[in-house]
Amino acid sequence: MTSASGEPSLKLGQLRLLLALDALLMEGSVSRAAERMGMGTPAMSRLLGQIREVYGDPIFVRSSRRLIPTPFAESMRQRIRALAAEAEALLRRQERTNDPVTMDPATWASTPVIDAAPLTTRPSVLLEGEPLPEAFARKLAVIGKTDDARKRLAKHIATIGAGIGQSRPLTTSEAEDALAIILDGKADAVQVGALLSIVHFRGETAAELAGFAQAARAHIGVTDASSSSVDLDWPAYISPKSRRMPWFLQAALLLARSGYRILLHGNDGGGNIRGTLVSAARAIGIPICTSRAAAVDAIDAHGIAYVPVAALSSQIHGLLSLYSVLETRSSINSLLPLLNPLGAPASMMGVVRPAYRELHRDAGALLACRNMTILGASRDAAEATPFRSSTLLRLIDGKPEDLFVPARPEPKAYPLTGMTSLEYWRDVWAGHIRDERASEIIVSTAGTALLTLSGGSAVRYEECREKARDLWETRSKHIL
After folding, report:
1. Does a structural domain hold residue 279?
2. What percent of the chain has pLDDT above 70?
3. pLDDT digits (tens, 9 = 90+) for 16-50
4. CATH number of the domain within which 294 lies
5. From CA 50, how far away is CA 141, in angstroms rounded?
6. Do 380 and 460 share a domain, yes or no?
7. Is the pLDDT of residue 325 over 90?
8. Are residues 263 and 341 in the same domain?
9. Of 41, 66, 86, which closes a domain?
10. Which segments of 257-353 does DSSP mark as H helices, in order?
């Protein structure tokens, strides 16, 4: 909006936009910024839309945890904070003369009874060859595209870890370079922990996640989708705390027995459930492979293969194993569903945390994924949850689409009687036990996979589900 002279007119509404931007920069969240300004979240969302329109800049990019300012927004942070602080000071009531008397520190001063010793800390340990803190920022400015990988990684860490107002997310190429240095074994151990911890604490952006995935794919030598020997990539990185039977393996095998080529890859859990997927896969005849080449051969022969991530890359497996050291997930957990080791044209993954589902779809789009389905699962593997309503986040020919799936009635669970859970699970596949609850999970999972493979729109979901049910009911014809 401009005045008659053509200059932007300063109006109360525009000042309100600046105050809203200050709140957003301070809080890193639309809802918390709205609370700070005493308005509803929808109203704050509208203000953010107006701010983006005024400046012609996204202002924030999405991460899994908070809004992260763009470089342009960061460049205005101090000026906007100063303006907002001055406005707050002008509107603050003056202190009243009848306020309670406060203590005058000068009249209460005295010699302390004992002078406490300063806090004891271990001497800081500098990385070999690194500058002192006061010279660090100055050195970063001249590092540029140095051939020294460790120093280049230090710059990436400083880019994201310099603190509020002085840091920004990594670009896709920067994230790719950072993880590539680590996967090549050229990073200092401290740098590995620093990068993973900072990014996880702040929350990955889609661009960072895509960059990490690109580095991991290059590290293991992913082929182009046009020459892929597999139809569907099915990541199976189950939580070490999971206690659920892996019904999704039976859904995957069901499709393989029907002519589709499926690659399963995972970490096979940890702790007390280490080896769960290997045991289950062997129980129903899914080949276990120790290399990508072996997986290709197994898929040619049987239509399906399971390959542990350790067989794909010892470095990636080692990074994933840091969970036991850090006691928290990292960006490695986030990128693995996007690994797609054989370059399949379609992918189906389960993502537990709601904020990460859109993040993975956005990252998938940046990675040029054509057909993808993300399920809100109770484990980090693509397994349907048919007894509660859910939304499938999809990419269809590269374009996003959401599909709402209503809840279905939940059949009664069957108790284990005189057998182990693995024996029960295997007998359900073999048809010796009829478990309606398990069948519903398998059919819904297989139906979602068929929809993903077809690249079909939401209207085809029930059709794919009915096809999956027919495959399940007639599976005895395909069991070897």
Report:
1. yes
2. 80
3. 888 888 888 888 888 888 888 888 888 888 999 99
4. 3.40.1030.10
5. 34
6. yes
7. no
8. yes
9. 86
10. 276-283, 292-302, 309-312, 314-320, 323-326, 331-335
CA distance 230 to 462: 25
Question: Is 174 contained in some domain?
Answer: yes
Looking at per-residue pLDDT, the higher value among 235 and 167 belongs to 235
Q: In this structure, what token pair is assigned to residue 278?
A: 């290997």
The answer to whether residues 267 and 309 touch, using CB atoms and an 8 Å cutoff, is yes
Strand 232-235's sheet: what is its strand order? 304-308, 262-266, 232-235, 346-351, 371-376, 390-396, 399-405
Cβ–Cβ under 8 Å, residues 315 and 183: yes
How many domains are there within the chain? 3
In order of 169, 197, 293, 362, 427, the CA distances from 136 in angstroms are 19, 20, 45, 34, 62
Q: How many CA atoms, within 13 angstroms, populate the side-chain half-sphere of residue 298?
A: 21
Q: What is d(CA 79, CA 257) in angstroms, rounded to the nearest whole number? A: 64
**Residue 292, φ and ψ in degrees, nearest 5:** -65, -40
Question: What is the token pair recorded at 356?
Answer: 């990460």
pLDDT digits (tens, 9 = 90+) for 215-229: 999 999 987 666 678
Task: Evaluate whether residue 218 is within a structural domain.
Answer: no
Output DSSP code: residue 2: B
Domain of 197, in residue numbers: 141-202
What pairing do the DSSP bridges indicate for beta strands 60-62 and 67-69?
A: antiparallel
Token pair of 330 as six digits: 């990292």
Residue 159 identity:
T
Residue count (the chain): 480
| Six token digits for residue 464 | 């794919």
Same domain, 306 and 187: no
